[in-house]
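Predict both folds.
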Amino acid sequence: MTIRDQIAQRHLLPAAGLEPTIKSPAQYVRIIVSEHWAASTSGQLITSCLVNLLCRQAKLVRHIEIVVPQARNLVRLPSGDSAKPFPDCLRDLAEWAVGGTVTVSTIQTTATADHTLFVGGQPCAQALNQEHALTLVADGWRAWVGDPSRAPRSISPTSTVPLGPFLAAALAAGEIFKRSRGILRGKFLSGDGYSLWTGASSPDWYTLEDGPTTTGIYLPPTHLVGTGAVGNALAYIIASLGLTDGYVVAIDDDRYDETNLNRCPLAGWLDVGDCKVNPIARTLRAANVGVFHFAGDIKSYVADGRTGLSTNVARQVDDLTFEVVASCVDKGISRHDIQGLRPRLLCGGSTLDLQAKSNLYTGRRGSACLACFNPAEQHGEKIRALESQLRKAPADERGRFLREHGFDVPAVEGYLSGARCGNLGEAALKDFATRPAPEFSTGFVSLGAGLLLAAALLRNTAFLSAAPRRPDMASLNFLNGGFGDSNLGADDACELRCQERLAAFTA
């Protein structure tokens, strides 16, 4: 399997509403940014995020041409600080992300583009005649994406908030993905605007309410549990907020492989094989956000000595007190473990096909907890079946299987033979037997979930007194542009019996 195949594997899997095979592969994308927007933070956030998302759409996108006047670089890129001006630094971003799998140029050509994206400025009349053209306008907490002929005029970007710009980039990347992959239902965006502050959507930019600036705010210590796709996106956003003070505890026991590169915006090609928490820590530290990273699961974190953890946070964890927790895990058992900590503020982000969601778990009577509708996996039979199969296999066949799947052969053989030193082999077999089957996922949906989650965290921490009252669940459907809030009722079959405990506590 080639590098391109590995990166593309997850976004080429079946998903509701998508064609079973690629409709239009190897697309050429041109991004045009006006001079005014190129010199603004919002314009650079949109453009850099677009490049980060599109270069990861391996097999669907082949080349990105960026037509942008040179400007001083105003934004911090996931690939690290760069002395190069904007947009030259974006070539380095794509090379860092996918090692040249999708190429990027910053010289305007006469090549025919399959898609043309206009960031902010008024496109020329000739450009308006292109078949697949979109205008992106975003500033603060708001984003608008649609046909250039319907775009809001004379918008002057003034904000440094990354939420709206990142949302516009995710929406535009989603539109290119839908046209390349092909859709069976849903729609293409023609003039759709969104406010992450109020949860409202409108084709009219001027009716969308903006939120407060994030520059200089304080984000209380937050446990980020799960640093894969959604957790990666959340850290990407936090690093771009311009915080005065903040502290993140990043927890994950997994490592990156090539398939993660299609959806983890803080992971580059050289991070393959590394612990998922390490690029998170690197990015947050570069943004002057305090961070403690732990390469293990939440149970191990609670039981560990946690050397280096902030004294105040360590004292709280010792008392099993968790103030703010963001759950970005993808297993039911992990969600049960997090809910069992009973955080004061618990938010969760998730994806399903082309849908992104965030939930606020308030602990109110009748509302869902994190364990509701997420039963714990029962893995005992899978583990026993794999062990039995390996023990019965001839030694040469067993060795070949273990080597092909990347096992530490002596460690596994030691465990199967009953040796006391076989703990590593046992852990490796359990991980292999319980690893879920690959599911569809792509970067723009994960970023959408991260944005919904980041907005919920900010509204319920830094801006609690000023934020509009909203239901507990926010969702964004990239297939049809649907955006809105709703409530999630409790699961009558919740394995943690959350409603029974609440009733007993309030009786």
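Second protein follows, with its predicted structure tokens after the sequence.
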Amino acid sequence: MNEKFQAITLRATGAEEIFKIEDIQTLWSGYGMIMRYGLKGGGDRHSVVIKHVRLPDQSEHPRGWNTDLSHQRKIRSYLVETAWYRHWAALCDNSCRIPHCLALESSADEFLMVLEDLDGSGFPIRKGSVSMAEMRVCLQWLANFHATFMGKDPAGLWPVGTYWHLDTRPDELAVLTDIPLKEASAIIDRKLSASPYQTFVHGDAKLANFCFSANGLQVAAVDFQYVGGGCGIKDVAYFVGSCLYEEDCERYEAVLLDWYFAQLKEALVKRQSPVDPVALEEDWRALYPVAWTDFHRFMKGWSPGHWKIHGYSERLAREVVAQLQGESP
């Protein structure tokens, strides 16, 4: 970090000194680093997590930034994440726990986010696989998140959240060889956007973005680069697909959806939402295979050999495409 950013971190934390503990993760395509820094003289806070985005040198890029959709999408995602922490994150309570943001700073080619270290706040566990009980905890987080932002206008965020949204992924659509799915992609997108029950979606609610408490009974979520508007069932389908292999996706579909909708109803009632949870469930439950197929469309264009492209996904996609084609005039 440069001296300016170090000074910002010291001021935000009230620490006398900061020191690097470790690199946590390199950002996608080498756009920077997520790091853990220790604090001296910072009171009760002993560490922070710093997300430092530094855009690559334009002169080294083979195609140039002006025509590079991937680069522009990434820049937008960091602007969205900054807007999320600045304007929206404070609405999340302990039922949809996220890291507190201590400082935000940006320049022409850099972004800095100084965040609470969730490891030090009781969420030190990351999981590569989960039990059904742990999946329920994550779905409970999603239900409360969706209830919190039900009906809100995603100002400053992606108008339509998720990193695989059709309008932001023309390259992957262009190379998609599944012609019926390709031809139905716009109809699928319109079907999801036409739901009368719009909220904010996390946009990348995979298992890797959930931090667990030591006993596995609580979670917090990170990575809000693709948060934006949409129907929450997109997060649910994506999360389930990130956790389960083919046979379990089908085996546990009903029980996981039952749990999610029970939690969503409870969360809406707690927040005194005017939304009818029964009507919402009917709408979103019907859209679950549509949301699954929407992500499947992206995966088949982006990585045709990926493990998530399996018989369950293919069957759902065929059924959804046939149904939507039958509905089209």
